[in-house]
Design a protein that fits this description.
The protein is of the alpha+beta class and 197 residues long. It has 7 helices and 5 strands. The chain has helices spanning 2-12, 23-30, 35-51, 78-85, 102-118, 140-151, 179-196, and strands spanning 70-72, 93-96, 123-127, 155-160, 170-175. The N and C termini lie far apart (83 Å). This is Smr protein/MutS2.
Length: 197
């Protein structure tokens, strides 16, 4: 019976040619994402990052309306942070959140930061207002904005603005360089190094 099964199998396999080795890996390497697919992937990643920014008042630290706030990530030099806190960098754009609902403010802030980075802007002004009479807590938008900014990786530092830019109701925000700007800086520095030799 075993011989009959083997003969039957061999008969069915007549004319079949073996597949080439590594066909799967070769196929995978030849598939490239299209521009719309890459854009959808970036949009999904941005949406996931946006949704990580909390809208739960119990997950934020409530701030006083007049409190001066500051934040910097590891690696930001003290002199750079000091200059930022004094309003020493040119403000490339402004984002006004203080009249918006929380969910919309979160989206506007996130998208404005993404757009600023794409445009090569490094310093922006975020206006959140003081919110002395906001509910359910005073300084609601300010407290959320400070929390969100600490959760966005592309924010290097921020500090309450000087009075002529809004004081405790606004923040100077320093952003990372875009990937393109980092490449340009590396190329410039590399060229500069070769000319100095």
């Amino acid at each position: 019976m075993l011989e009959d099964d083997t003969a039957l199998f061999m008969n069915e396999m007549l004319g079949v040619t073996p597949m080439k080795k590594n066909l799967t890996s070769a196929s995978v390497h030849s598939i490239k994402a299209t521009a719309p697919q890459l854009q959808r992937r970036r949009d999904l990643e941005a949406n996931e990052s946006l949704l990580k920014l909390t809208l739960d008042v119990n997950q934020i630290k409530a701030l006083e309306p007049e409190k001066i706030v500051g934040f910097k990530r590891d690696g930001v030099q003290s002199a750079v942070f000091e200059r930022l806190s004094c309003g020493g960098y040119r403000i490339a754009s402004e984002v006004d959140l203080h009249q918006l609902k929380l969910a919309l403010a979160r989206e506007v802030l996130f998208q404005s930061i993404e757009q600023a980075i794409a445009l090569g802007q490094r310093s922006i002004l975020v206006i959140h207002g003081k919110g002395a009479k906001s509910k359910p807590i005073a300084a609601l938008m300010k407290s959320f904005t400070v929390t969100w900014l600490t959760q966005i990786d592309s924010v290097l530092a921020f500090h309450s603005a000087k009075p002529h830019h809004g004081g405790a109701g606004a923040l100077y925000v320093m952003l990372t360089k875009s990937a393109q700007k980092r490449i340009e800086t590396q190329e410039f520095n590399h060229k500069g190094a070769s000319t100095r030799l």
